């Protein structure tokens, strides 16, 4: 698979200036904007909700890759569809009804993503693989940017890529957490093709850092 996509994470941007931060992301060659929604329950941190995403939508044409770290995310499917989310990704650990929740996301017209934490076995994804457009393997524990990449998660990326091939499916495989110009190569080799990067890209010149990630993918 060579359909690589880079997704700068708005979590690492300046929260007081989303409009200009989105403009800066548009100036890079990234395809996605990764948007982290945190409720202070599923993860300790709190970010923002669907109304903020709706406001952001007015300032960007990039694909909005919305990652919900909230309890019972099925409650918010309509809200994020109306806010203009393109992909809505939800955790298996966050609902008793992951299958139904993913069906609801598809029915609302969004692409459906499913995500697991580092401590969750990869098999938790298997019952819903035929429903999803994207699988996200967390490469840090969710909740905060700037954490170290967990290399052991790469066996899960490889396993889900193998399962995809065996079943003849075509979902994207995304990684999120601790992605930089070194770890991106490990994730690519394991089988990932969508790469979220927060602190690495925002802690330097955004255009240059995204270009460096792209170069690392070409190595
Ligand atoms: C963590 C979030 C990530 C975060 C990644 O819970 O899901 O999207 O922004 O940030 P970095 O790239 O700094 O690890
Ligand atoms: Zn995320």
From TrEMBL:
Location of the active site: 36, 176
Positions with a binding annotation for substrate: 9, 67, 143-146, 176-178, 198-199
Entry annotated with the keyword Oxidoreductase: no
Molecular-function annotations in GO: D-ribulose-phosphate 3-epimerase activity
Catalyzed chemical reaction(s): D-ribulose 5-phosphate = D-xylulose 5-phosphate
Keyword match Heme: no
Alphabetical keyword list: Carbohydrate metabolism, Isomerase, Metal-binding
Positions contributing to a divalent metal cation binding: 34, 36, 67, 176
Cofactor note (record): Binds 1 divalent metal cation per subunit.
Pathway: Carbohydrate degradation
InterPro entries per the UniProt record, alphabetical: Aldolase_TIM, Ribul_P_3_epim, Ribul_P_3_epim-like, RibuloseP-bd_barrel
Cofactor(s) essential for the protein: Zn(2+); a divalent metal cation; Co(2+); Mn(2+)
EC numbers, comma separated: 5.1.3.1
Protein family (similarity comment): Belongs to the ribulose-phosphate 3-epimerase family.
Function, in words: Catalyzes the reversible epimerization of D-ribulose 5-phosphate to D-xylulose 5-phosphate.
HAMAP family in alphabetical order: RPE
UniProt protein name: Ribulose-phosphate 3-epimerase
Native organism: Streptococcus caprae
């Amino acid at each position: 698979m060579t359909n690589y996509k880079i997704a700068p994470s708005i979590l690492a941007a300046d929260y007081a200036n989303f409009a200009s931060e989105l403009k800066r992301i548009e100036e890079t060659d990234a395809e996605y904007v990764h948007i982290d929604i945190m409720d202070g329950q599923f993860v300790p941190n709190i970010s923002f909700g669907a109304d903020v995403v709706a406001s952001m939508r007015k300032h960007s044409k990039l694909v909005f890759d919305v990652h919900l770290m909230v309890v019972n995310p099925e409650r918010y499917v309509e809200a994020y569809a109306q806010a203009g989310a393109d992909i809505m990704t939800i955790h298996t650990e966050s609902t008793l009804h992951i299958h139904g929740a993913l069906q609801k996301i598809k029915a609302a017209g969004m692409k459906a993503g499913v995500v697991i934490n580092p401590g969750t076995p990869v098999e938790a994804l298997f019952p819903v693989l035929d429903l999803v457009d994207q699988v996200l393997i967390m490469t840090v524990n969710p909740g905060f940017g700037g954490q170290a990449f967990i290399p052991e998660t790469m066996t899960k990326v490889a396993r889900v890529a193998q399962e995809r091939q065996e079943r003849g499916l075509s979902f994207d495989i995304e990684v999120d957490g601790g992605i930089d110009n070194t770890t991106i190569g490990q994730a690519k080799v394991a089988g990932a093709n969508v790469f979220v990067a927060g602190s690495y890209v925002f802690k330097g010149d955004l255009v240059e850092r995204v270009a460096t990630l792209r170069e690392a993918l070409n190595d």
